[in-house]
Amino acid sequence: MYGINFTKYDDFFTPKHVWEDIQHLIPKDKVIWDAFYGDGQSGKDMRDIGYKVIHEPNDFFKWQPEHYDIIVSNPPFSKKKEVFTHLKELDKPFIMISPAPMICYKYFRELFGNEQLKIIIPKKRIQFIKYEDGKYNEQGRCNFDCFYYCYKIDLPLHINYLT
């Protein structure tokens, strides 16, 4: 579903309200690359909100669009380290949804420890949509918190709480 092989734990998709919650923080004149295709719905949702979005089923590690301003996505859980390492190499602004404890991981501190990373904390725990047995399950409960990790994003504070 992502254009690369991932585990069954990567089939969790982002509800539209998660992008709506931060739309006031992303300028509408920016071209967004939603780098992780999943089921394709995330890119459609961001377009519905009013963004110009590049969202194609390509391998994030082997392909990038020719022109984009910011990467906004929910990366696969099993590839977080590889994804954030590649994001650092790309050195483009990004907003990525990932588990809250990641801020404490050694590799993450080594990648971004001295950078001006900013965090957006959601209003409540994000309940992702699970794809299993050929259907979507929106009733599952997520047992961990996530943040929006932001790099080279103009936000008012280093830690921004959504209300």
Describe the structure in your own words.
- The longest helix is centred in the middle third of the chain and has 11 residues, at 80-90.
- Strands 3-2-4-5-9-6-10 form a 7-stranded mixed beta sheet, covered by helices on one side. Strands 1-7-8 form a 3-stranded antiparallel beta sheet, with no helix packed on it.
- Mean pLDDT is 88; it is low at 1-7.
- It has one domain (8-161): Vaccinia Virus protein VP39 (Rossmann fold, 3-Layer(aba) Sandwich).
- With 163 residues, it is α/β, with parallel strands linked by helices.
- The chain has helices at 16-20, 41-49, 80-90, 106-112, and strands spanning 12-13, 31-33, 52-54, 70-73, 94-99, 118-121, 129-132, 135-137, 146-151, 159-161.
- The protein is 20% helix and 23% strand.
| Helix and strand element order | EHEHEEHEHEEEEE
- The poorly predicted ranges are 1-7
User: What is the total domain count?
Assistant: 1
Structural class: alpha/beta
Q: How many DSSP-defined strands?
A: 10
User: What portion of the residues fall into strands of 2 or more residues?
Assistant: 15-25%
The whole-number mean of residue pLDDT values reads 88
Shape: globular
Q: CATH topology, anyone?
A: Rossmann fold
CATH architecture: 3-Layer(aba) Sandwich
Radius of gyration: 15 Å
Strand order of the largest sheet: 3-2-4-5-9-6-10
| CATH class descriptor name | Alpha Beta
Instruction: Summarize the biggest pleated sheet.
Output: 7 strands, mixed
Can you count the helices? 4
CATH homologous superfamily caption: Vaccinia Virus protein VP39
Q: Note the gap between the termini.
A: 33 Å
Percent range for helical residues? Answer: 10-25%
